[in-house]
Amino acid sequence: MTEISHTEEMQEAFLRQQNELRDKIEQADRLAIGDVKRVAGVDLAYWKQGEDEYAVCCIVVIDFETHAVLEKQHVSGKIEVPYMPGFLAFRELPLILKTAALLETSPDIFIFDGNGYLHPRHMGIATHASFSLHKPTVGIAKTYFRVDQKTDYTEPADEAGSYTDIVIGGEVYGRALRTQKHIKPVFISVGNYISLDTACALAMQLTDKESHIPLPTRLADLETHIEREAARNAVL
Fold it and tell me: 233 falls in which pLDDT band (50, 70, 90)?
């Protein structure tokens, strides 16, 4: 079997799984924002060793009210699935689930540095992971992902908390949210078991003056840089 046909077979299997799962997405709050106590930020960083590709996943859990860090965990390993547009979750999910399994603190919500509903089949990493984590999830991306390669977003007003909906084919896929004045927006999309309004409210409450990126994923991103360098120098 050629590498091309193997990749095509994987794509077909992945597509079937995404189509099966997307009908189970719930864009409604399973948890009131007032009941949120612990929030986890999730991010990954990649590197190459020879012909092989590796990644490290870092999860940082913080207290929702105080923003104090409660726990950090990470797992690194070889990436077994080649890059295929629209199927990123299948590359990242194994490391994410291994890292989440190490947590001693149980997060109420997981926030991902990436997309959820803002995806051609509404199955970005934040959404896909929710079916294994069984917790509400949110995708918060730093850059805009053009789902249909033509729909752009409208810049929100230059005020903290301003937003514009990202509408594709008459459906709201996500929001461009300005978390700080004079700073570019982030892109919020529902993962699962949460509403877009609540996802945006969480993002605003979790953003401090240090950055326009909400704290959980910002801290997770910082950890990936540290752990990637450590893993590069270790024998995997």
Answer: confident
Enter the pTM of the model: 0.94
Average pLDDT over residues 90-110: 97
- From CA 94, how far away is CA 58, in angstroms rounded? 13
159, 138 contact by CB (below 8 A): no
**Domain 27-232: assigned CATH number:** 3.30.2170.10
Q: Write down the pLDDT at residue 171.
A: 96
Please tell me the distance from the alpha carbon of residue 65 to that of residue 148, in angstroms, as a whole number.
Answer: 38
